[in-house]
Amino acid sequence: MSEINTTEIPETGSGNETATLEPYRHPFDSTATIASAAVLLPPATFGIFANLLTVYVILKTPKLRTIFNFFIVSLCISDFISAILTPLFLYRRTWGFDHWVISGFLCKFFWAGDTGTSISTSFHILCFSFLRLFSIMWPHHYKVIKPFHAKVCIFVIWIVAIGTGFVPFLIWFDAQEIDRSVDGMERAWPACTILIDWLPQFRMYIYAGYPIFYYIPLGLIVVCSLGVTVVILMRRNERVKGKSTDKQSTETQRQRKENQAVLQLALIVGSYMFGYIPLTAYHIYATNVKAVTYEDHAFNWWFGMAEYMCLRLSESLNPVFYNIASSTMRNETFSVLRKICGISPKAKYKENSSNNMQVSAITTSAGVKSSKT
């Protein structure tokens, strides 16, 4: 991993000066490879299991098949695909950095799948946030929205994600030999990367597409989340002032659900920013800044690795956030986990009931003896 290419290439500078290109060295070593695997693979494994579990829990529980949860199921599928692509990214940045020896289609599929699911996730979260705001501000009108409408919206989201993310990246990216002895931006890139002929289109995509697919949705998600918080606080103040005749227990339960909804949105927004802002920032950096020194190469490598770590951690935690605002989903999730672990609630209940009966019998017997005495 630490081999040095000692070939020095003369480079013509301004005037009659001649500069020497710094010898190429790998920007990472075996320690960095092991550390990257240790950081990336556990969240990916958790993401695969957690997203599948969430989909299973929602689909098997009739009372969880709500409009909100239809979006969550689709979002979990998107995050599941992203999680299973993680080993390809790790290979691309480490063992396959210089020579992508596995199938070239897997290189294309990684970029296409990763970009398509990122766009899908962005618009899923936007729709989820909008529905949350709409349901709180106009609860009576919200009843007009049917599961059919949600399914149509989800279908459109996936069509957009495939057409604007999956297909272009399937064309633009491929595995290739990178000439490390030649000066240029691509000198620091992995073997599985953008084809240089498509670089102008990719740059245009970054500057025109990223605002549409990431930054504008992010702004709208923040606005929706703030709107939800403001509406909840305003209505809570109205109830406190005596405009509501609800009992104290009902009010406490309502506030707890409202707090859970606000917390869920805040975590989702924070997770979105944590994952996608570094992603877009790195792509802008990597396609505009030329790595000249070894420090430049090392920074490029660690920047690319760090932004992907943020993205994977962000998406792997989404199933946890989905369970925060729904006690029903939490209970069903724990029920499935108990079954997976071989813990039977019924058996435990029978054991407790048997113990209670024995205690009751002993107490009754002691009472009878005491009365006879």
Descriptive notes:
This protein is mainly alpha-helical and 373 residues long. It has one domain (4-342): Rhopdopsin 7-helix transmembrane proteins (Up-down Bundle). The chain contains twelve helices and six strands. It has helices spanning 30-60, 67-84, 86-93, 104-137, 139-142, 147-172, 199-243, 248-286, 294-316, 318-324, 327-340, 345-372; strands at residues 4-5, 10-12, 18-20, 24-25, 173-175, 192-194. Strand 2 and strand 3 form a beta hairpin. It starts with a strand and ends with a helix. The model is unreliable at 1-18 and 347-373 (pLDDT under 50).
SSE diagram, text form:
Elements: E1 4-5, E2 10-12, E3 18-20, E4 24-25, H1 30-60, H2 67-84, H3 86-93, H4 104-137, H5 139-142, H6 147-172, E5 173-175, E6 192-194, H7 199-243, H8 248-286, H9 294-316, H10 318-324, H11 327-340, H12 345-372
Antiparallel strand pairs: 1-4, 2-3, 5-6
Helix pairs in contact: 1-2, 1-3, 1-9, 1-11, 2-4, 2-6, 4-6, 4-7, 4-8, 7-8, 8-9, 8-10
